[in-house]
Amino acid sequence: MAKKLIIANWKMNPETAADAVALAKMAHVAGKAAKGVSLVICPPAIFLADIAREFKKVPPASRPVLGGQNCFWEKAGAFTGEVSPSMLREVGARWVIVGHSERRALDETDEIVQKKATAALKGGLSVLLCVGEGSRDEHGEYLHVLEAQIRKAIPELPRKALEKVVIAYEPIWAIGARALGAATPEEVFSTTIFIRKILTEVVGKDLAMKMPILYGGSVDTENAAPMVAHGGVQGLLVGRESLHPKTFPVLLDLVGKVK
Ligand code: PGA
Fold it and tell me: Would you give the end-to-end CA distance of the chain in angstroms?
């Protein structure tokens, strides 16, 4: 049985490198203990090197898998404040989150998302491509939003690297401290069927069936396992709950036990 993929998105937390290292150690130990889980930790880019350094002496296979939360599409140059995919790799990242709604809210367009994903794949990173609607209506209009986000990103990506793409379905209304609450497994299940249908049209059936889809938005110890069991998803993108040293290990353990 394939392991469930859990991506911990710390966003702009914690405040110090020492806290980031401590949090990463905790998450890594818990991730290893939860046998059915494969964990990717995405700290702020500034702390990636500190975390990677901490695990330098252990064999590569025993190190935590790290990711960035964003990247730029150029390799280098006059782009103040940006970080390239190769720079992320250099400090230990193997993944990057692209198109998170909190970045789309800062005017990141579908075109930018596509350029970032392309650059990340070319730079050797796996990509977590986030899609999600702002609100859900009875008539299914929100599905057009998802469809457009997928159609504008995926066909342009380098075909050979598509196996390194994972989709995160993150309804915006379910994300963060002001969320209405998590989506239900039933809502997510029907949406993942729709996403797979669009993926099938875009990349063909074989790849579309293999491409993992994660759910994100207000995931906690209560809803994580039911979501993986009944939501048609192969894992979760976890924000706030991944910062809690007491409950995140519980979440990983519960998800790891889902058959
Ligand atoms: P949340 O964030 O779990 O805090 O709602 C999820 C995300 O945005 O990645």
Answer: 8
Active-site annotation holds for 170: yes
Q: Which atom of ligand 1 is nearest to the CA of 238?
A: 3
Set 100, 102, 133, 241: catalytic member:
100
pLDDT of the residue at 244: 97
- In angstroms, what is the span from residue 218 Cα to ligand 1's centroid? 6
pLDDT at res. 176: 87
Q: What is the pTM of this model?
A: 0.97
Q: Is the CB of 69 under 6 A from ligand 1?
A: no
Query: Cβ(219) to ligand 1 under 6 A?
Result: yes
Pocket flag, ligand 1, residue 217 (CB < 6 Å): yes
pLDDT at 177: 87
The arithmetic mean of pLDDT across residues 83-104, rounded, is: 97
100 belongs to the catalytic site: yes
| Tens-digit pLDDT profile for residues 152-199 | 999 999 999 999 999 999 999 999 888 989 999 999 999 999 999 999
Q: What's residue 178's pLDDT? A: 84
